Amino acid sequence: MTDATEITIRFELNGHEQDIEVKPFDLLIDVLRDRLNLKGTKRSCDVEVCGACTVLRDGLPISSCTTLAVDVDRTSILTVEGVGKAKLSDVQQAFISHGALQCGFCTPGMILAVTSMLNEDPHPSEDRIRHYLRGNICRCTGYVKIIEAVKSLA
Description:
Elements: E1 7-13, E2 16-22, H1 28-35, E3 54-57, E4 60-63, E5 76-78, H2 90-97, H3 107-120, H4 126-132, H5 144-153
Parallel strand pairs: 1-5
Antiparallel strand pairs: 1-2, 3-4, 3-5
Helix pairs in contact: 2-5
């Protein structure tokens, strides 16, 4: 098997322009974690089910474990490292204040999903919150504290 030709992609990453060479089959999660050393994006299911690898592309949540890096060319990507750079964001602070995290593995994906939801709907109902977070699995908190944290922001 021969090596695939690399392609230069350009995208905004956490507010900064990024140019990087990728192969056509490189996954975004691998580029973020292994090439750009952004370890907040977690690998878990690899099939777009758990939400641990969630990042925002142009403000909307995507699963980086099934997104080709070439598909983010000319877009804006936000990872958990880009949220609350100078100080904790309101979402991050609410998660801490309400004890909405335990092991922390799902937390980056949850933070990004909630950030996107609140940008779309600053006053979501509990049903909307539950619906929006349906793609993010947490095995520790049982979701009660997470829902409480998000409701405190709404």
